[in-house]
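Q: What structure does this chain adopt?
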Amino acid sequence: MKILFNKYEGTGNDFILIRNSPPVISHSDSILITRLCDRRFGIGADGLILVEECDGYDFGMFYFNSDGSPGEMCGNGARCSAHFAMRNFAGFRDLTFMTGDGPHTARHRGGDLIEVSLSDVTGVRETPDGLFANTGVPHLVVFTDNNEDTDMISFGQPLRYSERYAPEGVNVNLVTVSDESLNVRTYERGVEDETLSCGTGVTASAIAAALAGKIVTSEPRVTVRGGTLYVRFRLTDRGASEIFLTGPATFVFSGEIEI
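A:
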């Protein structure tokens, strides 16, 4: 059977998007999802997103890492999913959509810029390694004076698999702060490598930086290896609300593949 797919990227974080209504891919088919994400034997991507009908919302977004494991939320993937929906069936208007961590909104900000809301963050806490925050998925934020020369696999992998964050594991962000702006590098669980960008990681890093007193602004500019993102939020006690992530969601190509 042939299926249609779209390839998207958000600041270098790339995804396969498939309109899965009616269903053509089972959420439990991790072998197929892994094969499609394989950069040598498939289409190639950091993750796969199924866009489906969802009662009461413009669409439902179901995200899977490149190893086939599901993820409750993906910030860059959410922006790409919203652009896909706007471009293909919903029109360029304000949208509501559902993910594994709850409802979200999306707004077209012109060009390929998409703003999405993120769920409130609570319970940010210090660990011996850094600050832990859940922005839909778990993140560890570690601050350093210079993150440019770090081998992120060697740095991130032991923390990702640390017993301290078991059994779910944790995504690991290495963050440098300068002049109210952040530079973030992320080792992502499920991809098991550094990605060029991680939207939920950028958001966790911005909130952690504000809570730690490293920035004053609640609208920081964040540089990642794949480009620039913007986070907006309102600080609360050990967390944040009214959280929005803005950045590019870029259609790359579409095609068919035999499954």
